[in-house]
TrEMBL record:
Residues 1-21 are annotated as: Disordered. One of its GO terms (molecular function) is ATP binding. Keywords: ATP-binding, Heme, Iron, Metal-binding, Nucleotide-binding. SUPFAM superfamilies: P-loop containing nucleoside triphosphate hydrolases. This is ATP-binding protein. Residues 166-317 form the Cytochrome c domain. The keyword Transferase does not apply.
Amino acid sequence: MDPIRNPYAPGAGQRPPELAGRDEQLRAFDVVLERIARGRPERSLVLTGLRGVGKTVLLNALRSAAVRRGWGTGKLEARPDQGLRRPLAGALHQAVRELGHPQPDDVDHVLGVLKAFAQREAGTGARLRDQWNPGIDAPAVKGRADSGDIEIDLVELFTDLGGLAADVGKGVAVFLDEMQDLGPDDVSALCAACHEISQSGLPVIVVGAGLPHLPAVLSASKSYSERLFRYQRIDRLARPEADRALTAPAEDEDAAFAEDALRAMHAATGGYPYFIQAYGKAVWDLAPRSPITAEDVAVAAPEAEAELAVGFFGSRYERATPGERDYLRAMADAAVAIAERGEEEVDDIGSVPTADVAAVLGKKPQSLSPARDALLKKGLIYSGERGRIAFTVPHFGRYLRDQG
């Protein structure tokens, strides 16, 4: 098969040629945009799921839908070591520019509030060289979004942004990836701002994406967050959708998959979108001709697995310390032990009791808390329920066992 015409795209956050299985989310978001445009109340949106299910791709697709409707949009990625002010200011600066408000004075006022919000991170009385300049020409507005209390400031900022958008009959949407990495104060402030905007009926929404435990993070910050956001779990693709993710791009290049090849591909990928793209690319490059067969899948599987071992699994494994790696391997071994005992069904993410991990390592659970907490902060594992942990990356346990 011609590698130049290979349609598959196994890149981080890179949109696949066929965005299969996400029609429901796209339609629901169109309804949200239309309701807000008509002044109807709507909740902000939170997407949750494992690594590799396409949350970032879907987040970008939703943003494109907002852009097509003339909304002001901005996107940022939360980081554990970074506060919210600077990246949010950069994202909202772009959103204001996209709105195309006809009154320069009104725009400059909101930009001035945005600048004050951003510069407040350096603290009052900071030297000029320590102040961050967000690239906004308008002078900072004093006494608005610059109190130093992130919750107060964010409410004031969103209120002014919402008013600017309402003037032109549009809205502002903030797209926030890796939302679980926000600090506690920033999470609380974001919830409070969304709550205030919802009550005021202003056209501003937040669309967040994060790991499966994100709802628990939000709930721990504000008890009303369960009613504040519309939660959507993004999961692996069902067999028909996984097949379409493979066959539709192939048909565009005058190629096809045999039925046995599709069965083999689904068995290998488990329906996870990132794996579908990785295996699709490897199979296309190595298959001699169309239609692609199960034998072609078997030949290409080692190359696909080697690519995943380096770019998907290995890059995350390398972030762990030796002690943390021992904990990860113990999780994988505990899942195998549970399966052999037949006590419960073991899922693809290797969800296991923390007590079983401690038993594998021959240590008390309390002594392993530092390693577990570090892995939680690094986003390599998560706790979906008390006393249990799981990998954030599907098939990670299998990768660890293959490494020996």
